[in-house]
Amino acid sequence: MNDGKEELDELREAVREFLAAKSPASAVRAAMDTGYDPAVWDQMARQLRLPGLALPSEFGGDGFGLTELEVVLEEMGAALACSPFFATVVLAAQALLASADEAACARYLPGIAAGRTIAALAAAEGNASWDPAMVAARAERTAAGWALSGKKSFVIDGAIADLVLVVARSTAGPSLFAVDRGASGLRAEPMTTLDPTRAMAVLTFDQVPAVLVGTEGRAGALMSRVLDLACVALAAEQAGGARRCLEMSASYAGTRFQFGRPIGSFQAVKHKCADMLVRVELAEATAREAARLADEAAAEFAVAAATAHICCSQAYLFAAAENIQVHGGIGFTWEHPAHLYFRRAKSCELLFGGPAVYHERLLDRLGI
Amino acid sequence: MPDDLLQFTREVREFLDAHAPRAAERAAFRWGEGDDRVAYFGADPPEVEERKLRAARDWQRTRYSSGFGWISGPPEYGGRGLTPVHELVYDGIESEYDVPDTGTLSVIGLGMIGPTILAHGQQPAKDRYLPAMYRGDVIACQLFSEPEAGSDLASLQTRAVPGPGEWILDGQKVWTSVAQHSQIGMALCRTDPDAPKHKGITAFLVDMSAPGVDVRPLRQMSGGSDFNEVFLSGVRVPDDHRLGEVNGGWRVALTTLMNERATVGSEGSGPVAEALSPERLSALMRATWTWDDRALRRDLSELLADMMATGYLNARAFRRMQAGVAPGPEMSVAKLMYAQNLTRAAHFTSRVLGPLIIADTGEWGTYAWTELLLATPALRILGGTEEIMKNILAERVLGLPKEPGIDTTSPFRALPKSGGTS
User: Using the beta-carbon criterion (under 8 Å), do B300 and A2 form an inter-chain contact?
Assistant: First the structure.
């Protein structure tokens, strides 16, 4: 009945220590220029077994749930850790699992679980929509098998992925395909991103050989499930990032003196921090509750996922913006990390479409 | 769940099965059917209020005689000698049954003042009042706030002057819930105006039927009277009704406030929560032909997201408390959010209704929303204003420094008062 709280605390502590040592601010800055650090990714897999944490044991994982994954993602969000974790373990692995394609899972998931395979999910295109109905990329049957043509944008870690899962349209409708890195006709171009801690790429497909994953024409339902899970995983990152912004603000407001007093003793500043705390507590609760409901396969999960996406998006953006305000001038400098959180917060909010999409998604999940 | 809790759970169910029906499944909602009131404050006619109070007292008596009247209280005063976790378990199970609302007795009297008497009362007061309170015979109210002591409770001015074996009280209290039903009141009084404000206060139990106690209903902006003003004019209180030390009343008051019953989990039910369900709100939009208004749909989503998030926060806090983990800041956060959510909900529904909420057309489920609209300003004030709640969160949870001031060290007499009087 205690939610396995002690185990979760131990996991959190281990991940936090690891990230403090391996992904300090200096490492984040370095990764902004040169990309993620493969040595750290390797340690993350070997020492902490994080990529496989929430993957089923029959595919090489440790069989934990979203509740445990949530803890890891909160810490990664707090540290702005640069790694292909989100793309590989959340987007790509969840797409494979949602496809219910045993052969594909058996082929790809063990590599992902062991940290050998970096994977990406290519769904959105130039219009940035994750709605499979909007997919224009085409899949054709050829004598040699499936061939994909088209262009995908906003593909997280698409330029470094060993495996790309692609949503493309066949005559049966949107379907999921697997493409190996180095397949002929595949070209990857990094995109310039608002958030330099999360790499994205444009992938161009010109008759690229591909393998069908799951059932042809069924990527609609699959993506709906993947997006629900991805929203909850993202919510964890957002809650972690928002919590870190609050901690930075509270600590600064307690030590920065103006007018002979710590600025945190002024109610105008104090109340700002309290408002951040309220939003952070709500964000954390919704993200964690949504994860719990996912693990229990509760009917309410889809509603909780949509709620978590809205609450955590708003909380992170609010906390990141107010964090700069609490810091004043120093918070507007390039050197200060506040802008990195601001960039991440904005990018997370809009990644899956933002308010233009997520409000209607919640109403839809509520049957309104 | 440990064995003793399992055993306790079985006992609770047996008791409730024998004495109360299971709560009926909520009937499917149909626009235009049933009661359309959206009442936050009670606005029952006096005879209905009396009937509900009788039912509440009867139910508390039944609980008491079966050992569930004061689950965490000591046996010598009629308690069961179990833990607060057992209380939570009981409350959780009882919420599945259809039982009278005992809030008039329990929120302030049993929840806050009972534990204070237990901690700080003298023997005669404990013997006389504790069993009687938990048996449902004695209702208690809190004589704390004053016209000049709102957020700054410690600046209260009601005086208590010592006489032989007794005290004489003079002053005015305000915002006193349930005073009209109460047999006793816990009063905070100034006993040393030359000491700093926190150090010159003494707490007493006042017999509400004593000469000089005058309870007058206070009409609030929503039209009803849920609170009272209580005037104390030369009220004589025996010294054995003093709680704690002379001039040690602030500590006593903190005991009371710390026992302010966790509202966790209790806000997801009731007529307001039902009226604000996604189903009801969308029915309102359909009935008013605002169904496809994009701006209103976005407002609705924002509102529902925050209401559900607050529900998740409560659910998690409740589960943690049941598991014996001390609650964090969730309750203060939930209180702030509850006020904000209801306020936003009231304004959302009024935007949906448009002119239908400024004059009564007689149409079901429209003008009725004025009741919630006019109640919501109270939610940001009562039980600690939003501003004070934010100070508490920032200072106690985030560790931010207090506002520097002179008012905790100077003699109370020397502090500036409203209107320039002292």
Answer: no
Phi, psi for B208 (deg, rounded to 5) = -70, -10
pLDDT class of B268 with cuts at 50, 70, 90: low
Q: Most distant CA pair in chain A: distance in Å?
A: 79
Q: How confident is the model at residue B421 (pLDDT cuts 50, 70, 90)?
A: low
CATH 1.20.140.10-classified regions of chain A? 220-365
Q: Is the CB of residue A266 less than 8 Å away from at least one CB of chain B?
A: yes
Q: Do residues B136 and B61 make contact, with C-beta atoms less than 8 angstroms apart? A: yes
Q: Residue A110's closest CA among A49, A44, A41?
A: A49
Three-state DSSP class for residue A185: coil
Domain A5-114, second-level architecture: Orthogonal Bundle (1.10)
Q: A66-79 and A219-255 helices cross at what angle (nearest 10)?
A: 50
Contacts of A368 in chain B (CB under 8 A): 278, 282, 300
Q: What share of chain A is helix, strand, coil (3-state, %, to 5)?
A: 55, 15, 25
Give A225 or B3, the one with higher predicted confidence: A225
Q: Which fold has domain A119-218?
A: Butyryl-CoA Dehydrogenase, subunit A; domain 2 (2.40.110)
Which two three-digit tokens encode residue B380?
């940001």
Fold topology of A220-365: Butyryl-CoA Dehydrogenase, subunit A; domain 3 (1.20.140)
Average pLDDT, chain B: 92
In chain A, CATH 1.10.540.10 sits at: 5-114
- Rounded to a whole number, what is the distance in Å from the CA of B309 to chain A's nearest CA? 6
Residue-wise pLDDT tens digits, A119-161: 999 999 999 999 999 999 999 999 999 999 999 999 999 999 9
pTM (2 d.p.):
0.93
**Minimum CA–CA partner of A4 in chain B:** B323
Nearest to B337 among A261, A282, A359 (CB): A282
> Which residue of B308, B318, B322 is the best one to mutate when testing the A interface, meaning the one whose CB has the most A CBs within 10 A?
B308
Q: Which of B253, B221, B236 is nearest to B379 (CA)?
A: B221
pLDDT at residue A1 tops 70: no
Half-sphere exposure of B113 (CA within 13 A, CB side): 33
Chain B CB within 8 Å of residue A357 CB: no
pLDDT of residue B264 exceeding 60, the answer is no
| pLDDT tens-digit series, residues B214-249 | 999 999 998 888 899 999 999 999 999 999 999 999
- Does A288 reach chain B within 8 Å, measured CB to CB? yes
Lookup result for tokens 């009917």: A299
Number of Cβ atoms within 10 Å of the Cβ of B91:
17
| Token pair of B213 as six digits | 């106690």
Closest CA to A186 of A156, A169, A217, A165: A165
Interface predicted TM-score (ipTM)? 0.93
